[in-house]
Amino acid sequence: MSMSEKEKGKEKALKLIEESIKFILVETTHPGNIGAAARAMKNMGIKQLGLVSPKEFPNEKAFYRAKAATDVLENAEVYKTLKDAISDSHFVVGTSARNRKVPWPIVTPKEAAEKILSLSQQPESKIAVIFGREDRGLTNAELGLCNLHVHIPSSEEYTSLNLSQAIQILAYEIRLKALSVEGMLEEQEWDVPLAENAEVERLIEHFEELMQEIEFYKVDNPRQLLTRVRRFFRRSKLDHLEANIFRGVFASIQKKLKK
Amino acid sequence: MSMSEKEKGKEKALKLIEESIKFILVETTHPGNIGAAARAMKNMGIKQLGLVSPKEFPNEKAFYRAKAATDVLENAEVYKTLKDAISDSHFVVGTSARNRKVPWPIVTPKEAAEKILSLSQQPESKIAVIFGREDRGLTNAELGLCNLHVHIPSSEEYTSLNLSQAIQILAYEIRLKALSVEGMLEEQEWDVPLAENAEVERLIEHFEELMQEIEFYKVDNPRQLLTRVRRFFRRSKLDHLEANIFRGVFASIQKKLKK
């Protein structure tokens, strides 16, 4: 069977989203929502599900609501903390209600899908999309672990979507982007894999440590300083080598300072 | 309060979708799905709900799942037949699983949303979007009453979306079209102006200077190291404050090292 180049590109993109994307649900209260999420994901060809401290799981309500997506539930991985869940992720997208004091780069679901698809083409990339609790979403600390924040444009009269509906919209946009693949092949492959999440986290911690050692504080608002540094490193999509260079530099500085 | 033309256009479009669009659910079996549908609609600013021979309605499960969209349920109109429900509609869109023997013009949710928005601008237009039964959608006869068929692109492995999820996607696309401003959220103002080119250049030079002072060189290829650092800072779109923080940290380190 011969396929057009476009068909091949599409098939490849659909395979990539299945292999590289994991949806992670943090402290979900209702098991029915986990089942509905699994179905919404599989309908769009996304199958990797991570659960951080779900209130009740496994649970028959989840399996009932998943309908023909029980395989997604059976293969779901359960973690104690969000940090565990994303430790091997190269890129982390967090869903946000969008009224933070320090603004982060915040994008539409469509823009997030474009970014995710483009990153999924990096060899062996692992991309996590994080969804918060039914009643209050993700905490600021959890959003601080993300590289990108996405916001679903909802009505001012009623902004809060059901969890599985938010998942449906993100999954739908990712699938649409995979089906459209236009311009996909134009993306130049990066020479070095992206830094894994744990590497970026260590780098940020290392920089904070260094700032403490040199007693560098903005007098007026030290916490904001740390938030800004974190936000910078999180959004800048470091690759593995860049992370190594910075850590090497920081370590050398610390060594010199100790002499 | 004065608004830009763009803001006025957006507000008008949102008002039009509220006034002109009705979502109609045909013979829904599970009242929970009706409640979830009401919430999904209101989240996107669509409030007119029609129900054709629902199996159980009103029902407390529907009200439970609707959460803060109970007003949509309270105002829902119940009809005996689909023909009754659409008798005053000017344009009818039907959702379809897309494997009909006689092909109809079939569009994506995005294309349907464009059509719907453009029609909503006609004075007093009434547009109906029809959703079928949970297990088998709309009949051929019902689809025959529609002007346009829309299909949600789903995975071949699992094509059938939950009813309220299909409703969420259509409502989302209609809202996006009303907001109509691709990349809208990008316009969110950053709190700090971006660093000017000369600032970034000084920052890079400062970092290079620091690396020399601590004698940090990769033995194999020092030039590549500098190139990588430069590429990193150049592509990361630093803002003015971030550039200042880094330069402040570098200067403090240099001062400490000199002691």
**Rg of chain A to the nearest angstrom?**
20 Å
User: What is the mean pLDDT of chain A?
Assistant: 89
**Spatial arrangement of strands, main beta sheet of chain A:** 3-2-1-6-4-7-5
User: SSE string of chain A, helix = H, strand = E?
Assistant: HEHEHHEHEEHEHEHHHH
Oligomeric state of the chains in view: homodimer
**Class inferred from helices and paired strands of chain A:** alpha/beta
Give the strand content of chain A.
Answer: 5-15%
CATH overall fold name of the largest domain in chain A:
Alpha/beta knot
Number of helical regions of chain A: 11
The main sheet of chain A comes to: 7 strands, parallel
What is the CATH C level class of the largest domain in chain A, in words? Alpha Beta
Number of strands of chain A: 7
Specify the CATH architecture of the largest domain in chain A: 3-Layer(aba) Sandwich
Number of domains of chain A: 2
As residue ranges, the low-confidence spans of chain A are 182-188
The largest contact between protein chains, plus residue counts on each side, is:
A-B, 60 and 60 residues
What is the CA-CA span between the terminal residues of chain A? 69 Å
Q: Level of helix content of chain A? A: 40-55%
Considering the protein shown, what is the CATH homologous superfamily of the largest domain in chain A? SPOUT methyltransferase, trefoil knot domain
Q: Give the overall shape of chain A.
A: globular
Describe this structure in words.
The structure is a homodimer of 259-residue chains. Chain A has 259 residues and is α/β, with parallel strands linked by helices. Chain A folds into two domains: 5-186, Alpha/beta knot, CATH 3.40.1280; 197-258, Helicase, Ruva Protein, domain 3 (Orthogonal Bundle), CATH 1.10.8. Helices cover 50% and strands 11% of the residues of chain A. A seven-stranded parallel sheet of chain A has the order 3-2-1-6-4-7-5. In chain A, helix 2 links the parallel strand 1 and strand 2 (48-52). The first copy, chain A, is globular, with a radius of gyration of 20 Å. The N and C termini of chain A lie far apart (69 Å). Mean pLDDT of chain A is 89; it is low at 182-188.
